Amino acid sequence: MPSIPTRRALLIRVLAPQALIACALWPVTSAAQETIPVRVEVRADPSGLPLGYSVVSIPALGIERFTDAQGVVVLPVRPDSRVLLRVKRLGFIPRDTAVVVGAAVGQRITVALARVSFQLQPVQVVAWPRCRRPGIPARGGDAQLLGIVEQLRQNAERYRLLTSSYPFSYASEREFTQRKLNGPEEFQRRDTIVVDGVPVWRYRPGRLISRDTTPPRRDWMMHIPVLSDLAEQQFIDNHCFHVAGLEEKDGQRLLRLDLVAAERLRGPDVNVSVWLDPDGYQLRHGEFTLSTIPRQFGSLLHVVSRVRYVEIVPGIPVMQETVAENLVSSGPNGRERTSYTERQRIVSLTYRGARPDQ
Q1: Measured between alpha carbons, how far is 162 from 152 in angstroms, rounded to an integer?
Q2: C-alpha 242 chain-centroid distance
Q3: Edge to edge, what strands does the sheet with 55-58 contain?
Q4: How far apart are CA 239 and CA 288, in angstroms?
Q5: Residue 329 dihedral angles phi and psi, to the nearest 5°
Q6: Which range (5-14, 70-79, 142-151, 239-248) has the least confidence?
Q7: pLDDT at residue 334 in the model
Q8: By C-alpha distance, which of 16, 7, 8 is closest to 343?
Q9: Is it the case that residue 28 has pLDDT exceeding 60?
Q10: Would you say the pTM of this structure is higher than 0.90?
Q11: CB neighbours of 93 closer than 8 A, spacing ≥ 6?
């Protein structure tokens, strides 16, 4: 787990996102609840092209699964029943459709999804207002904002389903450096750790900083929300969302969405900027900044973690690289500046069972 060295609690260790491992919960059937296999095919409207790695769920039965690369999944459904199918795919408008399943074996259902389309403008230089009315209105809000936030949530939901269906761990290489303002970067140390995907921390509003109780360290820690946290309602309810527009980022023209922590929160939270591919709406980059500096860290000026994501399979993002930085003032009148940086890069990933691309 990445960390930044501290000096008498002047700094805050930044804990970067981890994979979230969970147990998939599938409905239990009995002799009185026999099922038949129903083939669901997800295709693009109007081209008819298969949409691989779509998410198909039956909420009433607790079923949620990926399609294969050809947009096909087989679900267990009770015969002679009516079910609500929920189908989602990044870059497409989600669709709920009610279907009637007969008693015959070999039934097929085809669901067509329409592509998302928004008129996007270049980023304007703006300073967002304080977040006094957090959350996303269910109705009557900005249709473009609602649609783009839905695409962000799909990134998070797909990641959550990936880790519950295909648990994995990864080896991460870490490098620690420090640099005085206008001075050379000084290497401190490098190591490699293996990260089990189960996080011990989940997002709680205004509770991003805690004390490490693991002996012998007593460092302060800043927790970075994992990708799946961004889909949680309590995260959405405590942030304001702003579509910034199109921006050049890492050689690509990407859509920036800014999330501002609610002013009402009493403790430090996180302001977030994410950059999405404007064509398929895959998550490419994230920047997590501590919303307020606690009073006990008077010399701490800035805490930020920058994350780059890659697709592990089409439309499913995972963290690839993280750069976490503490900027600290020191010296006479606090005029000196020192940056403490940790870089983390995933060098290998190991599945515990089946792979999503098999």
Answers
A1: 16
A2: 17
A3: 63-66, 55-58, 81-88, 95-101
A4: 13
A5: -95, 150
A6: 5-14
A7: 75
A8: 16
A9: no
A10: no
A11: 113, 114, 115, 116, 147
Which tens digit of pLDDT belongs to each residue from 253-312? 999 999 999 999 988 999 999 999 999 999 999 999 999 888 878 788 989 999 999 888
Determine the pLDDT at residue 1. Answer: 36
> How many C-beta neighbours within 10 Å does residue 46 have?
9
At residue 178, φ and ψ (nearest 5 deg) are: -145, 155
Question: Which residues touch 143 (CB under 8 Å, ≥6 apart)?
Answer: none
Contacts of 282 (CB under 8 A, 6+ apart): 90, 91, 155, 276, 309, 311, 315, 317
What pLDDT shows up at residue 139?
66
Tens of pLDDT, residue by residue over 88-104, are 999 999 999 999 999 88
Burial label for 335, CB within 10 Å (0-12, 13-18, 19+), is: exposed
Using CA atoms, how far residue 203 sits from 13, 142, 232, 235, in Å, is: 16, 26, 9, 7
Structure token digits, residue 36: 């038949």
Contact between residue 318 and residue 312 where contact means Cβ atoms under 8 Å apart: yes
Cα gap 179→159, rounded to integer Å = 35
